[in-house]
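#dry-run=false #mode=assembly
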Amino acid sequence: MAIQLNINGKEQSVDVPPNMPLLWVLRDTLGMTGTKFGCGMALCGACTVHIDGEATRSCITPVSSVVGKRILTIEGLSPDRSHPVQRAWIEVDVPQCGYCQSGQIMSASSLLAKNAKPSDAEIDEAMRGNICRCGTYQRIREAVHRAAALQQKASAKLARLGESTGEEDATEAQPVHAGGAA
Amino acid sequence: MSAGAMSQIGRRGFLKTGAAGAAGLVIGFYLPGRAEASRAPADMNAGAKLNAWMLISPNDAVTIMIDKSEMGQGILTALCMIAAEELDCDWKTIRTEFAPAATEYFNPAFGMQGTGGSSSVRSSWDPMRKAGAAARDMLLQAAAAQWNVDKSACRTENGTIYHDPSKRKLSYGAVAAAASKLLVPQDVPLKDPSTYRIIGKPTKRLDTPDKVNGRAQFGIDARQPGMLYAVVARCPVFGGKVASFDAAKAKAVPGVKSVVQISSGVAVVADNTWSAMQGRRALEIKWDEGANAGANSENISKLFAEQMAKTGAEARKEGDAAAALSAAAQKVEAIYEAPYLAHATMEPINCTADVRADRVDVWAPTQFQTMAQGAAAKICGLKPENAFIHTTYLGGGFGRKAGTDFIIEAVETSKAVGQPVKLTWSREDDTQHDFYRPASYAKLSAGIGADGWPVALTSRIACPSIMEAWFPGSTKNNLDPSSVEGLATLPYSIPNIYVDYVRTEPGIPVGFWRSVGASQNGFFSECFIDELAAAGKKDPYEFRRRLLDKAPRQLGVLQLAAQKAGWDKPLPAGRYRGIAVLEAFQSFGAQVVEISLDRKARTVKVHRVVCAVDVGRVVNPANIVMQSESAVVYGLSSALYGEITIANGRVVQANFNNYPVLRMDAMPTIEVYIVPSEEKPTGAGELSVPPLVPALCNAIYTATGRRIRRLPIRPEDLA
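#status=ok
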């Protein structure tokens, strides 16, 4: 049966069983492969997306339960890697294999939306559900602090909108590797 | 892959073990005499090809073909740095592509195309520099010819060729097509390292932008038109087979398209992964569990213990250890044991295959392209050159993705259903059907003289052979060097040393696990050395320092780690520390680990790890830091939690709930220090796994007075 979903601000219709986890709807049905499969039991956080702003494990979330809600995936976080968390991740050069990083970034961005200046302990608490086997935790911690600073700068800038700061906010980092999802 | 073991097999070994997949391929490494003589990969149209690794397009983009698997270890960036240094191109113009499976990309350390054994920088260092220098020379020649001037009057800088006398310049892109038609010059002089502008500079990873927005394509992200999705039901007992199965209920699951038997079990094919998983749950299979049905961890441990009475294959003999041992003033003896370990890569095992009449295409996160190619071709009755291996990013590898088991499953399934198939393993599949780090058991004995210094050390190791499992017939005299590395390579000045190995095969599949033999033998040797220091009433650092008088590089990292950790300064109350030093894959590492204990809760908190490494000349210092941190975390996970146990022939653990790994809240502060060196570059991906475990156990000993001789660390060890 057709199910209506709002993904990254776009209305989509999918014909899938209502109990199918959102993860597989995203990955297999819609081809949005940025959200990763890691454990299938909400133990590793690789599949994290936002549901109405809350970091949620899509691998155990039946698609029927998110009808009428706002689903945000890594692909929708920003069109150009300009979200403060993405910018911080690039600045700090967080990823290694990169597989868990979509989930890490979605957890971190959900944290920062609620807590503009988290402490180390608050970062640990919010991020302990996201496993990284490459062990990038030290840089993740650093990058969350950096993202908090960037976010603060961006909102300060927004507050004095209209004044020219002369600062360049857009990231310069561009992909160099052939292929990749559109 | 064990570097020592691989060099022992050499070319002959791989020819002989062609069953592993390399049969029919030319073995060896070469720079083709003419650039265009080498086989162009199917997807290579990015410009003029100057050699197997470098293409330059008219718009000056330089494409580097990455012939190693990027699994997080940063090799994509390192290879580009080495190439760009000699090519003298503009770093901003670099693009990358993963190389296809082809003979020109054979890893000279292996005699086939593959990534492992911390060999990538070590093996690419010369070929990549030579290729870059030759390509630069060809560009110079082409520009000089166009200007009709002598090549020696021209120079390059950052992707541009200059003829200063006439103030003319040409970009690389403008002459690349002409340059690609020239003969590849041999023996072009390489740069003096003192002039390096890229190598040795901390450089950001080139793959980061694709890894912050979901764009990076891992194997599991492969999509092909008309593709179906598969999971496989495998016998839970190793070596077991399908006796019979009834597919009716599985086929009744919505979305399931077909159910087919393949060599490893029964594949359920559906129009999405979740339906395939539901179908597998409904599938009814009777297994013939085979000879391993009664295997369990207790019996395996007993089997190892029984081997201690045997004489094994001699791995090292210096002096007369038996005589020195019996004459010694004091004798120390200990039994150490390490468990099987799973790799637990974040990206579960997967492979996408499309079998056609005349070709097979495979998209996979593989570490061993040549073996993947051989395996795919064999199933399809094709020549290896008609098996096209498209290597993707690997969401972690750690040795697990060297296997061909998942390649075989995907190719067999695609062949059976006549459509492209993406095979995905669940986390449970991965945990229960891995090629595990071998369980291992060792008896160590030492004699200590009246002055407190050791006079003899013997070690007997019982464990399965990885090399015989993967490359049958490849070891000599029943001695697998990877089974003894870390112990047979003990660097201390002890006059009488004897190490032997009793190959023991409990029937559990084994494989290369990040740092291989050193992962368990480093635990044994560096904890036992600590025992000897205590028995001789010496400080564990001073003890090692004095005994490393003939091992300058081990001594260098040991001193650096101790100095940075402040070994000579007392710790705050409640803090304890331990130290360890090891060689792995021709690199050297030492660590000091600082801990505290919660004796009531029986838990350990690791506060700080000071990590010193000597990897020869450093290509990318930023990456050495990352790899060292990463290896410390990997080692810490194994020491604190890592254990695969067997009951009724089955793996007990299944997912991250009962095979836990380190999480953010247990992350220590890690400091990494690099020994400056002009030695040949060696690898850093595995080096810092082995020292962590003994340094941690030695720290716990200082807190509790009790030795940890069996992993993982248990609550009773922490009271």
